[in-house]
Specification:
The chain contains 5 helices and 6 strands. It is an alpha/beta fold. The protein has a 6-stranded mixed sheet with strand order 3-2-1-4-5-6, sandwiched between helices. It starts with 6 loop residues before the first strand and ends in a 17-residue tail after the last helix.
Length: 221
């Protein structure tokens, strides 16, 4: 995966697949696939970026990897048959297991420089984790933010800002559990993601002088 003069970008998407997501299933599937297309477009457009996607869904029956460090060029889309909401919400376990697995893989690869974007989307609070606690997740996230990992939390039906803050996540988007609201917030996320990728080109190519537009969820770069 390590190619000279090409910066790997690791996109980790953690999607709630608990029963309450059933009411917005159609919009989730469509919007997720549009997000994948944003990543594919960035990979094709920016020659100095090499994009990989890890996509995880979770409920209390298990944590499922649909893509693991998959190159953008060969991403598998989500379908109505592969996204099947049911059961409860082990949010902490899904975050902890997914993030630590990616962290260990990056440490194994030892890239000279890289970006990690972690997006968590859920319509309910934690209620089923067995391995990780909120404090444990915050400790992990606080450590990884020092390594320039970027976390965003997209949520509904609970105090989104307070829940995210408890885990050390500043960048949040709130939505309502209805199809139109999901489409709107996912458009925001896609726009921020595309702008982030564009901004990295300017950061790493001093010959470019134009200033990219600001990001809604990532202002420290």
């Amino acid at each position: 995966m390590n190619t000279p003069n090409v910066r790997p970008v690791f996109n980790l998407i953690i999607l709630d697949e608990s029963g309450s997501m059933q009411s917005i299933k159609t919009s989730i599937v469509g919007s997720f696939n549009e997000t994948l297309q944003v990543i594919i477009n960035a990979d094709q457009k920016h020659e100095d970026q090499n994009h990989f996607v890890t996509f995880v869904t979770f409920d209390s029956e298990g944590i499922r990897e649909h893509n693991y460090l998959q190159p953008a060029s060969s991403l598998q889309k989500l379908t109505m048959e592969t996204y099947l909401p049911g059961a409860a919400t082990p949010l902490y376990d899904a975050i902890g297991e997914s993030v630590l697995k990616l962290k260990h893989e990056i440490e194994r690869q030892k890239p000279a420089d890289y970006d990690v974007l972690v997006t968590i989307l859920t319509d309910g609070q934690e209620n089923a984790s067995r391995k990780f606690t909120g404090v444990g997740i915050k400790n992990i996230i606080d450590e990884l933010k020092q390594q320039k990992w970027v976390f965003s939390y997209i949520g509904a039906n609970h105090n989104v800002e307070a829940t995210a803050a408890m885990m050390g996540i500043e960048h949040t988007i709130r939505f309502e559990s209805e199809e139109e609201s999901v489409q709107s917030i996912m458009q925001q996320d896609m726009s921020s993601r595309a702008t982030f990728f564009e901004k990295r080109v300017f950061n790493y190519n001093p010959k470019k002088t134009s200033e990219p537009i600001g990001l809604s969820f990532e202002e420290e770069f």
